[in-house]
Structures are given as C-alpha cells and as structure tokens.
Task: inverse folding
C-alpha cells in the first residue's frame, strides 16, 4: 500500500519557500547584483561550462505556458510548436522576467521553427545563433561545433565584458561533471521499486540546479541525496508495488505540459524516468577532463546530446536502453508537442525499438499546452495501464 505520510521536504529552508521559478529568479537577480552577467538560453546545446567560466549565469527561456500563445499568434502561424509560440509570446509581450534579466541570448539552429523564431526576436537583445551541425557522426562536426563555441565566447566577451581562461573552463567542466553525477544519483531514486522521489520534486531540483554553480549547489544536491536515503531506510515511497511504472520520453515538459505527469499520477501510475531535455538527458553524459582542449571537449560532449534534430539519432535508442534497464518501466510514453516534426517522425523508430527490443507497451501522445485534451489523454493512458494490469 502507498504510505500516506508526508515526506520530509528535499530542500532546506533557504530553498524551500515558494515555487521553483520564483526561487530561480531570486537566485539570478542576486547573482546579477553581485556583478555576474546573465545569458538567456533556449536549448540544451548551449555550452554551460563556458557560460559559468565567464561569470555569466544561464537563465532558461524555453516557455511552457499557454498564456502568451495568443500574442505570439499575431506574428507566428497557429500551426507551430507551442514551446516556440509560448517562448516568443513572452518576449514580445515583455512578460518574461528571465528574458528581462538577460544581457545576451544564446540560440541554436535546431528545429526550423525555433531557428526562424530567433530571427524574429534578434533585434530586441544581443542574440547569437550557433550553427549546430546536425549530422553529429561526420568527422568535421566536432571541429565545426568547436568553432561555433569559440565564436559564442567572443560574442559574450563583446556584449558582457566578461572573459575567461582555459583553466577556468576546465574547472567548470570538472564541477559540471560532479554536479551531473550527483543529479544522476538523485534520478536513480526513481529506479527504486516503488520510487522514493516523484516528478514534481525532480522538476524542482532541475530548475534550481540549472543556473547554479559552485560548492553551494554541490552541497545542496548531497543533502538531497541524504534525505532520499533516509526515505529508503524509513520505507517511504510514492505509489505502491503495483503502480504502473512510466518512462516519459520526447519533447521537453514543463508548465502547462506537466499535465502529462499529473494524468499519469492521477490514474495511479508513477513517473520513474524523465527522459527529455527537461529531465535526465542533459545530465547523463560526462565531459572528458584534462584533455588540454577544454572547448574541444565541450564540443564533443554536447554533440552527443540525442536530440531529434540530429540525424541519425541512434544515441537516443542507446540512452533509452540504458534507462529501461535501470529504471524498469512497465510502459513508455512518448510526449510529442503539436507540430514538432522531428520528435513526431522519430516516434515511430523509438516505438518500434521499445516494443521489439524491450517488449514494452508504447504510447505516443501528441498535445499542446491547452487543457482541452486532458480527458482524451486520460482515456488513452488508462487503456495503456489496463493493458499491463497484473
Ligand atoms: S529537445 Fe532538442 S531543440 Fe529542444 S531543448 Fe532539447 S536539445 Fe534543444
Ligand atoms: S519541441 Fe520540437 S518543434 Fe518545439 S522547439 Fe523543441 S524541437 Fe522545436
């Protein structure tokens, strides 16, 4: 049976008050007051270690709210990914405090919609579009991406007055590896059966971790691991031994798109593995240390991120195998945003792989940020859970 006890919060008092977005905003504001610059980011390909090494704080600008979409549709087609419309709508309506704090904006040529949206906002703040190689296994790709990272460095130097050294970048690589390995340990509490961490807590931890650097965040993550260990020892868990264990893959999830996690939970399931850029994808793979070429090492590692904008994207299947083996989901749900052609097309390949190699049920959900399809999604997820009833 699910134990109906309230677990000890995973954050200490300093971090425990208010929603994660407010806490993150407060953190970025205070770093700015201390002299740091701020870079707004839209993608996992933005090289965080370089940003941190330049005393710049990253602020995530990808938006997951339905509210600014109406404003965005005055310029953008309605049949466009809601993440792009929402992100753009916040910028043109001047309602995104993270964008407001940003000194520079970093963008990448990932999907076509985002790329063209960046063009439309490039006059508002200094914005650099990195040309992302999309055939990552080509031998030139790593060097081309390294050149883009070096160009980004010059752009940030020009617009923020900040600079850095190879030594500082190397230190940030090593710190990032430590942070990411602690994050992976935290995710692994979802592999416990039943899990001792839920999607909401994971989401909060990721939000707070993303802009943070230095010993303070490492201590915070270690403290969270201790608390999770206590949960294991005291027998606290989410759901119960029969709750359907769900891996969610696909497009990034946040804000109004969190409906997918809520539906799974409302129907008695537990989200045990969040595989997307909003989940474990960006934490899984360490950067090579002490190579003597820290920017080259960053370029190599970031090109391994298995986004569907890459072709071929075999690493997504390899990652899926590793996640399934560790987290032992009963089902895999592919979360695809409307008009996201790359994830939508790739869904067939991922689905066949999950069904044939792992013998697991696979469900693709195509949706947006509105709540109009909640009942329909519930019906489909319910049917999925019934198909595995033990
Ligand atoms: S899904 Fe792809 S394009 Fe979107 S944030 Fe992740 S890496 Fe970037
Ligand atoms: S979800 Fe898909 S369409 Fe939307 S921004 Fe990401 S890659 Fe582009």
Result:
């Amino acid at each position: 049976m699910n134990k109906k006890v309230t677990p000890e919060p995973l954050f200490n008092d300093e971090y425990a008050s208010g929603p994660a977005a407010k806490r993150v905003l407060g953190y970025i504001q205070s770093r700015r007051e201390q002299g740091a610059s701020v870079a707004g980011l839209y993608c996992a390909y933005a090289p965080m270690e370089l940003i941190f090494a330049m005393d710049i704080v990253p602020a995530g600008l990808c938006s997951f709210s339905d509210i600014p979409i109406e404003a965005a549709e005055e310029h953008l087609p309605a049949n466009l990914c809601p993440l792009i419309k929402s992100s753009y709508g916040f910028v043109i309506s001047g309602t995104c405090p993270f964008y407001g704090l940003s000194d520079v904006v970093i963008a990448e040529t990932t999907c076509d919609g985002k790329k063209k949206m960046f063009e439309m906002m490039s006059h508002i703040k200094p914005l650099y579009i990195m040309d992302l190689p999309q055939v990552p296994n080509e031998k030139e790709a790593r060097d081309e991406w390294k050149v883009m990272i070096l160009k980004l460095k010059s752009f940030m130097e020009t617009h923020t007055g900040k600079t850095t050294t190879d030594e500082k970048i190397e230190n940030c690589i090593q710190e990032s590896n430590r942070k990411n390995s602690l994050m992976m340990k935290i995710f692994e509490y979802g592999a416990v059966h039943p899990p001792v961490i839920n999607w909401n807590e994971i989401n909060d931890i990721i939000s707070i971790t993303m802009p943070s650097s230095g010993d303070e965040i490492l201590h915070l993550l270690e403290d969270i691991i201790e608390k999770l260990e206590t949960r294991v020892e005291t027998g606290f868990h989410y759901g119960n031994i029969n709750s359907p264990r769900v891996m969610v893959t696909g497009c990034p999830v946040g804000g109004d798109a969190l409906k997918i996690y809520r539906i799974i939970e409302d129907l008695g399931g537990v989200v045990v593995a969040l595989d997307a850029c909003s989940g474990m994808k960006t934490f899984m793979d360490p950067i090579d240390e002490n190579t003597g070429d820290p920017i080259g090492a960053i370029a190599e590692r970031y090109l391994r991120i298995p986004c569907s904008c890459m072709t071929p994207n075999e690493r997504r299947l390899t990652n899926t195998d590793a996640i399934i083996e560790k987290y032992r989901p009963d089902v895999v749900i592919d979360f695809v945003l409307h008009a996201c052609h790359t994830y939508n097309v790739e869904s067939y390949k991922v689905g066949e792989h999950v069904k044939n190699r792992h013998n697991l049920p696979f469900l693709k959900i195509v949706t947006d940020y509105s709540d109009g399809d909640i009942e329909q999604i519930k019906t489909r997820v319910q049917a999925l859970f019934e198909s595995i009833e033990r």
